[in-house]
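Colleagues,

For the teaching module next term, I've prepared a clean inverse folding example: a structure given as C-alpha cells, and then the sequence designed for it. I'd like students to try predicting residues themselves before seeing the answer, so please don't circulate the second half yet.
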C-alpha cells in the first residue's frame, strides 16, 4: 500500500467508485519508444534526416548532379550535419538540462526525477531516429561514400554502437532507479498530499514494478552512461572535423 502521507488522494484511490488501473507487468516498459510521443520524435527526426538523401537521389535521377566533387562530398556532408545535430542534443540534455533542473529551488525532487526520465527517453528516441537516418541514407546512396568518408566511418559506427548500449541496456536500469527514487521521495514525511487519484494509481504501479524487480541496479550505471555520452560527443565531433577537412582539401 501507498504511504499514509498521501492523505485525501489515497482515500480517493481506495474508494470503490474509483477505477484504479492495475499495475503494468510489461517487462519492456523501460525500453525506448514505448510511449506515443517517443515514437513521434523518432519518426520526425528519422524522416527529417533522410530527406536530403531522397533529394539527392531525385536530382541524380533527373541528371541534376553532374559534378563528381559534389557527389563525393554529399554523403559525408549530410552525415556531418546529422552528427552535429545529434551531438547538440546530447550536450543540451546530458551536459546541461540534466543537472541544471536540480538547482531549481522550487522544483520538487520527485518531479525533477520524473521529468528527467521522460526527457532522456525522448532523447534516446531522437538519437535513434538520427542514427537510423544516417545509416539508411548512406545505404541509399552508397556509391557516393568515398575517400575520407570511408576512413571516418568508424566514428559514427562507434557512436551508434554506444547509443544502442545506452538505449537498450543502461537506460532501462536508470529508469528503474528513477522510479525507485520517485517512490522514496513521495513516501517521505511531508510528501506531496495534493496529487490526483490518477497520479496515486501511477505511483501504485511504480511501487508494484519496483517490488517485482527486487534489487535496484547499481548507481554506478549513471557514471557509465555519462562516460558513454562523452565518448559519443567526441566521436561525432571528430567525424564532423574529418568531413570538414576533407571538404576543404577537395575544394582546394
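(Answer key — instructors only)
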Amino acid at each position: 500500500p501507498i504511504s499514509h502521507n498521501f492523505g485525501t488522494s489515497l482515500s480517493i484511490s481506495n474508494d470503490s467508485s474509483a477505477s484504479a488501473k492495475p499495475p503494468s507487468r510489461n517487462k519492456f516498459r523501460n525500453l525506448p519508444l514505448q510511449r506515443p510521443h517517443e515514437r513521434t520524435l523518432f519518426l520526425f527526426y528519422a524522416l527529417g534526416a533522410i530527406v536530403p538523401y531522397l533529394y539527392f537521389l531525385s536530382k541524380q535521377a533527373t541528371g541534376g548532379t553532374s559534378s563528381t566533387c559534389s557527389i563525393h562530398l554529399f554523403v559525408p556532408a549530410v552525415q556531418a550535419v546529422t552528427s552535429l545535430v545529434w551531438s547538440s542534443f546530447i550536450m543540451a540534455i546530458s551536459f546541461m538540462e540534466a543537472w541544471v533542473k536540480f538547482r531549481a529551488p522550487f522544483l520538487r525532487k520527485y518531479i525533477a526525477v520524473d521529468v528527467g526520465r521522460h526527457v532522456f527517453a525522448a532523447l534516446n528516441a531522437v538519437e535513434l531516429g538520427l542514427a537510423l537516418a544516417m545509416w539508411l541514407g548512406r545505404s541509399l546512396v552508397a556509391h557516393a561514400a568515398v575517400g575520407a568518408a570511408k576512413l571516418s566511418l568508424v566514428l559514427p559506427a562507434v557512436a551508434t554502437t554506444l547509443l544502442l548500449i545506452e538505449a537498450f541496456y543502461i537506460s532501462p536500469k536508470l529508469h528503474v532507479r528513477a522510479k525507485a527514487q520517485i517512490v522514496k521521495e513521495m513516501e517521505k514525511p511531508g510528501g506531496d498530499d495534493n496529487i490526483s487519484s490518477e497520479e496515486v494509481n501511477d505511483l501504485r504501479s511504480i511501487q508494484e514494478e519496483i517490488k517485482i524487480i527486487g534489487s535496484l541496479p547499481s548507481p554506478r550505471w549513471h557514471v557509465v552512461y555519462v562516460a558513454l555520452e562523452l565518448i559519443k560527443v567526441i566521436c561525432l565531433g571528430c567525424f564532423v572535423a574529418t568531413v570538414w577537412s576533407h571538404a576543404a582539401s577537395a575544394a582546394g
